[in-house]
Amino acid sequence: MTLNAFLFQALNGLSTASGLFFVAAGLSLIFGVTRIVNIAHGSLYMLGTYIAYSFATTYAGAPGFWGGIIATALIVGMFGALIEVVLLRRIYRAPELFQLLATFALVLVINDATLWFWGPQDLLGPRAPGLRDAIPILGRRLPSYDLFLIGIAPIVLLALHFTLAKTRLGRLVRAATQDREMVGALGVNQAMLFTAVFALGSLLAGLGGALQVAREPANLATDLIVIGDAFVVVVVGGMGSITGAYLAAIIIAEVKALCIALGVVDIAGISVNFTKFTLVAEFLVMAVVLIARPYGLLGKPQGAVRSVAEPEDPIRPAKWPLKILAGLTLAVLLALPLLARDEPYLLVLGIDVLIAVIFATSLHFIAGPGGLHSFGHAAYFGLGAYGAALLVKWLAAPMGLALIAAPIVALFGALLFGWFAVRLSGVYLAMLTLAFAQIVWALVFQWEALTGGSNGVVGVWPPPPFDGATVYFLLTLILAVAAVLLLRRLLFAPFGYAMRAGRDSPLRAEAIGIDVKRVHWLAFAIAGCVCGVAGGLFAFAKGSISPETIGVSRSIDGLVMVLLGGIQTLTGPVVGAVAFTTLQDTVMRQTEYWRALLGGIILLLVLAFPMGIAGAFRMFARRASS
Amino acid sequence: MSELEIKSLSKAFGGVHAVRDVSFAVGKGEFLAMIGPNGAGKSTCFNMINGQLRPDSGEILFEGRNLAGLHSRDVWRLGVGRTFQVAAVFGSMTVVENVQMALISHSHGIYKFWPAAASQHRERALELLAQVGMREAADRPSRELAYGDIKRIELAIALANDPRLLLMDEPTAGMAPRERNNLIALVKKLVVERGISVLFTEHSMDVVFAFADRIVVLARGHLIADGNAAEIRDNPQVREVYFGTGKTFAGQAS
Fold first, then answer.
1. In order of start, what are the domains of chain B with their CATH numbers?
2. Is there a contact between B113 and A508 if contact means CB atoms under 8 Å apart?
3. Given the DSSP bridges, would you call strands B80-83 and B57-62 parallel, antiparallel or unpaired?
4. pLDDT in tens, B58-98
5. Tell me, what DSSP letter sits at residue A372?
6. Contacts of A487 in chain B (CB under 8 A)
7. Which residues, at least 6 apart from A90, have a Cβ–Cβ distance to it below 8 Å?
8. pLDDT, tens digit, for every residue of A380-398?
9. What is the CATH number for A46?
10. Residue among A490, A494, A507 whose CB faces B104 most closely
11. Is 0.85 exceeded by the ipTM?
12. What is the value of pTM for the model shown?
């Protein structure tokens, strides 16, 4: 590789950085003032590209293209304001986890709305009028539109900087970023301020997306890819810092460009294809920054988040009604193979439900009593599933060995990732766990030689006698019951109490000799390990495993199960997993727009039903008894 | 010999010198009050002694061992109990479970994964609760309690590791005057029985002058006085800090 090629890639990286900067700046601005991490910001970016495409193709020439870009930014900005007024205003005082889920629900709804309006195919816009040519530079030709993009990011940065430093809105934004309650106490109309900031942040995302129209096709997968990148940029740059976002966008884009420029390199006799590791490299940069500077390059430590959630009730051992109910449920499950003689699908559904129960219970273990709201629990599911499947594929391991290996592989992953994760809290923790899950996903997706890439690993079938649905169902049932009882026992043991102590009051816990980080780290590892069992069972149940089954959506599904059941109850995750999986396997498979349906369910949960199913039952039981 | 000896302790936050070259000692079994106006550096002192903050310089000798820079969990293991200015208890646990948690930790039982925590050290926890007058509320969720009662639970928690030194940051903040005297009288009784040394901060001068064996006064990060109640009352510097010199308004009054 020549130096010129290298510099050329660096320039290319700069033009990519500008799009990333727009999204990240908007995200950061909104978080600074409203303390909401808008996961739907990538969706606004995606909408920007689609809307700009429609303008550019409907109205020909420069007005359609350039005028369309400006109109798009304004439309997306107004759409953002609408979201703020209709949805976010209702959840500013809700627990963080609910806010994150609500904005994720928007991702699902917007994605399906886009699918409905524009269709599933990629849409490439026309080239930019006036900037169609390419400029010879460093012995290659760089599109002049890319140069335009390189130039526009610093201009917007300066404009934002000026707005924040000199205008009244800017002063209010800075004041609210420092102390939002104080700003409210001083008589500032917060509702207006929040709407304005949300509109501005959305406008930036829309602009970023619209500017990509001449460079990349509009694509339905953009939303999650962009938000993943934007998270990394914001975390690296520091929450709430616009300049930090610019700096981080450049660093991330350049690291990716470097990977592409390096290409295939021989290291100690092994040829490594660096172009395959762009995603991994990006998240490694973030991990390094978070270790050295936990609040990002230019970020400041966040003030303690004032907990708004009611402390939950003390946990009590199960009383007779619950024990009888659990016994009855178990009896029905044991009898299911008999009931399923005429309905073989019932057993397949049963296996799915039981695997979901293990997954959701292990997530609840850390998210509920541990207080660590992991947005990347799918990582340990994936490690378990791939650990088992790869053992079968490469070493022809028997199923028993593969199923033992699954939780061990997941345990090591959780020990590694958890060590970083427990050093953070709140939204930083959510973003870091999500990023780690993306690393696992990227590894299995990009490391084709080992994992089969997007095709996944196939032919992971259980040997006799487990090849029949009945026997495999019973195996899953035994493991699920064991996992649920084990985790429950841990919660009632001193370790589980110490874990809750660290969540309730880290200050007090440390002052009575509890090493909160170590306890939470261990809890994280235990949860990951148990989750690995679910992954292993899943691989053998389906006979295959592919990257798409271990993506972000599985992590979110887990959180929805936990919330649906009720995060403050110990039976919640079990109830939630059963309800959600049954719903998913029956209703949602019937419609093309299942994402929007799922989004609707999440919004309903967050807005109207925050205590979940088991929580509601408990409330009714208490009312009835008093 | 002193139980706790503070030598030239300093801490700055940015340009603000919160605590500057402070030295004093707490004798064995002594009930020592630290007073001073808001922002004098009392809580910063406490947080350095208890390990929440690392001092910029100086020594904190507890029974001859330097605590500076240790984690608060390690300070606790050496035999130092602590109550906080804003009471901190475990809201999702019952009253007795809060105390049990401290006892479990004291007996190195945190990493037990099988036995039920609710049955561990329950008798001893109930005893401690009886001593602070909270035996009746043992099985109530701690989040339901009034603030004064939570302060009592904190005291029971702080006594769980049989401390030889007790740090109490405004133990009576937010309590009614009568309740205040009761709580401090209770603390005094308990510590005299056990021979515990106590360092506490307090804004109520009635409490301080009635109960403290000795008083140190902090103002703007400096230690300005150290003596018994009578000496502190008559100290001109202390009077200036608390009441002003009268010079500020002299011009306008004439």
1. 2-225+238-248 (3.40.50.300)
2. no
3. unpaired
4. 999 999 999 998 999 999 999 999 998 888 899 999 999 99
5. -
6. none
7. A607
8. 999 999 999 999 999 989 9
9. 1.10.3470
10. A494
11. yes
12. 0.86
